[in-house]
């Protein structure tokens, strides 16, 4: 039996990377009938200062954690097919193309500089590895127009702060 979990995720930041900036991440889990459930998280206001990129990666982490939590609640032990869709080319390309190179290079990029957001990429990679024991994770880039649910959740959360 295969248990499919499809997420659309997004992150947003006002005052991107500046002191006092505010960032949120949203993960929307879609059901077979097209409805979705959403989790939204506000990023800490400092250390490091929030950025849009950090919010985008945090949204992916939220989806991965949600998938693992949901799996632990199931009565059976199905094969997990976790599908994460994001409009962040940075996050998707990092997790599908660059992360293995960064790991091999000791978390330095091709220019010899430390990889930005290493803490979040390490966490996402560790969660993905946990899922690999019970299934697989697929990351897909989608255009922003196809990610409106998660985008709206982020905007509304930012407006409430």
From TrEMBL:
> For this chain's UniProt record, which GO biological process terms are given?
DNA replication, removal of RNA primer
Q: Identify its protein family.
A: Belongs to the RNase H family.
Question: Which InterPro entries does its entry note?
Answer: RNase_H, RNaseH-like_sf, RNaseH_domain, RNaseH_sf
Instruction: Please verify whether the record's keywords include Glycoprotein.
Output: no
Q: Which UniProt keywords apply?
A: Endonuclease, Hydrolase, Metal-binding, Nuclease
Task: Spell out the reaction equation it catalyses.
Answer: Endonucleolytic cleavage to 5'-phosphomonoester
Q: What is its EC number?
A: 3.1.26.4
Q: What is this protein called?
A: ribonuclease H
| One Pfam family linked to the record | RNase_H
Q: What class of enzyme is it?
A: hydrolase
Question: Which residue range or ranges hold the RNase H type-1 domain?
Answer: 1-161
Q: Which GO terms describe its molecular function?
A: metal ion binding; nucleic acid binding; RNA-DNA hybrid ribonuclease activity
